[in-house]
Amino acid sequence: MGKDTVTITDNSTGKTVEFPIKRGAHGPAVMDISTLYKELKMFTYDPGFLSTASCESKITFIDGEKGVLLYRGYPIEQLAEKSDFLEVCYLLWHGELPTRKEIADYRHQINHHTMVHEGLRDFYQGFRRDAHPMSVMVGVVGALSAFYHDLLDVHNECSREISAQRLVAKMPTIAAWAYRYSRGEPFAYPRNNLSYTENFLHMMYSYPAEEYEVNPVAAKAMDLIFLLHADHEQNASTSTVRLAGSSQANPFACVSAGVGTLWGPAHGGANEAVINMLKAIGDVKNIARFVEKAKDPDDPFRLMGFGHRVYKNYDPRAKIIRKQCFEVLESMKVDDPLFEIAMKLEEIALKDEYFIQRKLYPNVDFYSGIIQRAIGIPTSMFTVIFTIGRTIGWISQWNEMITEKVQRIGRPRQLYVGAPNRDYLPIDQRK
Ligand code: CMC
Question: Whose CA is nearest to atom 4 of ligand 1?
Fold first, then answer.
């Protein structure tokens, strides 16, 4: 065993510096280069953070080679089977599984924060009815800080906890109302006798004119989807929330930045893109053509729901969702031709040398849309559902960041490749 350092020599000056290696509980070690600039007057260059750990975290761990995902050390498969979304929210925020009393209190707290300020209702009227619900989410979530500014002190533990509970609790209300607004339908208020997920389905589908009964299969499947999306370590939206929070901005503002980031098709928007792709394929006989397009370096088309920056193996969440697809479709008696296309596409892609070589497997988004379609969720709401699930991850990561001993604003450096220093040119001398 060598020393726990890495030695770097700048060949242009001959200066040699040793940097400490830090080891975590799992995963690759990291080289601590925080003094690199001081020592060598040099930055590191790593666009897209391919080799850069941006923080220490105790929340979530992914082993992308083995296809492992742990929330606070617990395997996702065990949580999916034995836990539920709100218990996982408690776990992610507090770090430990709750006792009976703790979870009962937590459920009560969340249930009693589901209403939103009446003034926030008026916000919806300002949006076009045909706006994408994610655009409404970005606006309304950001606006929360204008309505709940009583507890925005980010250095006060109690304020942070209440803001976190408000975010988790209100997100389904905000999301369901975005959907109802797009349809010109009345908003349904939350009901305290329903569970978190039942409440969401109630606000999505109940009408004042008739009784609505939540389908337990739909509620269970939706809860699982929330649970599987709850956190995923330092992904693009979570890193955005942390970076925004490093300026000491309030948690609602930071989470709305996360919502905006999640919307992109390379991130949470992929679940919507998968369904659009499966519809465009239309028939199993067209799959080969689409696979060829995905492999063509001159064609920007990619198989949506395939590939992942970290997973170089089957995404464990995709395995769980795939299994759940069979159960939901069967018990809800839904025959979705897109499921057949998805399974055939997966089978063909997994045998194809291009995908094998690049270790491209289905990710969480590949099958989640199929379940959501069976439940009756419109495609444009898929990323919104992802937002509801991920809120606890964002806010827990934000809380971890804001309670670090040393507070530093996130401020990446750059390799400047623009025009060198030059003198201002008067307008009559310009060509
Ligand atoms: N279809 C075809 N080729 C692909 C795909 C795909 N879905 N994904 C990656 N590749 C190829 C890519 O062209 C590249 O090939 P080459 O080495 O010949 O240039 C190679 O695989 C590596 O790809 P990359 O873009 O360098 O990988 P990345 O880690 O930067 O990107 C990704 C990861 C998820 C953005 C990408 O795989 C992708 O665009 N997938 C489709 C969108 C998607 O499903 N996103 C959801 C991600 S999971 C949920 C979430 O985290 O939000």
Answer: 302
Probe ligand 1: pick from 263, 272, 363, max atoms within 8 Å of CB? Answer: 363
CB distance 360 to ligand 1 below 6 Å: yes
Catalytic residue annotation: 308, 365
pTM given for the model: 0.93
Q: Where does 229-381 have alpha helices with state H? A: 236-245, 251-262, 270-281, 287-295, 316-331, 337-351, 353-357, 365-375
Q: Does 172 sit in the ligand 1 pocket, CB within 6 Å?
A: no
Tokens matching residue 121: 């209702």
Q: Is the CB–ligand 1 distance for residue 304 below 6 Å?
A: yes
Strand-by-strand arrangement of the 30-31 sheet? 5-10, 15-22, 30-31
Helices (H), 112-209: 118-125, 133-147, 157-182, 196-205
Query: Mind listing the pLDDT tens digit for each residue in 159-209?
Result: 999 999 999 999 999 999 999 999 999 999 999 999 999 999 999 999 999
